[in-house]
Amino acid sequence: MTTPKAIGLPPSGLLSFGAEAFGAGRMADDDQELFQSILDNAPLAIWMTDASGRMRFINRRLSDALGIDEARFLAAGHYTELLPSVVALRCRQADRDCLAKEAPHLSKEWLQFVDGRVHLLEITRVRLLNPDGSLRGIVGMAADVTERMEHEKQLERVAHYDALTGVPNRQLLADRLAQALARTKREKGLMAVCHLDLDGFKPINDRHGHGAGDKVLVEVTRRIKEAVREDDTVARLGGDQFVVLLVGLQATEECVGSLQRLLESIQQPIAVKDAVLAITASIGVAIYPEDEQDADTLLRHAGQAMHLAKQAGRNRYHLFDAVSDQRARSHHKLLQEIRQGLAAGEFELYYQPKVDMASRRLVGAEALIRWNHPQRGLLLPDDFLRTVEDTELEIELGDWMLRTAIGQLQRWHAEGFTLELSVNVSAYYLQSPGFVAKLQATATQLAAMDALRHLQIEVLETAALEDIGRIDALIGACREFGVGFALDDFGTGYSSIAYLSKLDVDTLKIDQSFVRDMLQDKGDHAIVLGIIALARAFDMGIVAEGVESAAHYDALLQMGCEVGQGHAIGRPMPARELAGWRMPALG
Q: What domains does the chain contain, in order, with CATH numbers?
């Protein structure tokens, strides 16, 4: 579409111009009243001035918004005489800019309306020409974009700030950390990346409920913010983990003072309902440029130092030593062993059965990675997966798991053994470049595209909620190949219900912590019931993890849970054993 450079008007003004536009020549009285009514009720504020700035027309929407009637505008020597002086100066300049060029002039202006609020207007000014080409004046149109701007700000906040505590989330933290690194390099100073994890937070959730846990997190966040300076950044990674960026330091001792204040502030009693709760924190610290690494490595080093603080007794801090820290060397050694083990074929997938709880029939399995370590024997995921988090090796292990699972699924189906196979995928791997293309290429190479209809990818609920828009887009792309999705450990996130309708998933997996304690804990029992009801409301499947006894099984069956998984049903087993497996009697 070509943008008009100017509008030519007949001598009779704006209403006659409207008649010409409709091909009706000069308007009859009724038509003129109709056109006037259209302009008055248009969603835009509309006005027309002559070349000197005297108002020739103003529609009712604009005059009502400003609380200035049409007669006052038309009587003024220049329309800006009726506006606040600051606004008038800008409007006069905008008029001059419009008259100086053929193209429409665009601007924005804050203006107080008769409702007392200040509104943001997007204004378009266009020159008006007489039939002979001489300048007649300006026509202006203004759209009120205040609500749109506020909505955009709200969306921006949701995307970059933690919904519970109001501090930056992981996504905004990455930007703040990059800025802090750049500032520190420029100023040749010091900065500290502090990974803070609360001690004893889970028992508070278990004993007092998640509502009390939320209040503790909000109060701890307030205390952290009060203990640091305004230039420092406080961010929440999720759960009970925070990151604090201390910037503009000149000596390590400044960092130590801030860490002491943090520990002392957090350990003060917190009153929640009728209880007084005590909580402490373990803090790991990586100092730049003493630890001269990139942002991701600094965060990882701070996390490793935090674990050392916990191991040393909690309620303390530990400074990461990039030169001599034994844990850093052990971490690197384990990464090398994992890489070598992957190349040597030491990893294997075990499969844990999932059964229809009403019929006790095998309906699916979850693929779980195991490491047949040449010296240490069979290792479970907790022994090595944390080491590869957020590294290229995590992606390589993920590729191996998906390839192995898809290949096994294809072999089972060729043998007439049909079931749904789920694979747990980290958010880091799911969002890695080319994930969807690699998934399709793997299935094509294995001649297993049909098998993808029986593949389900499990994503941790807390990870999915961190970047819900991107995760949902990836889910949609995978669905084109028939791949299903489940939210794993459902119920552990703080915005589960609010965002559930925005994620196109098939299944909710109830976190095993709720299932394990539901027979004794009324709160957990209610949570399990609520999640089952929620799944039904959204027409999703439901799987209960952690079915550890016949009592758990019977209780879940009475609640209406569809599918169960746990040691009472069947432990993870090699692929060769699953086809002949039958659920044992419970008693």
A: 7-144 (3.30.450.20), 161-324 (3.30.70.270), 348-578 (3.20.20.450)
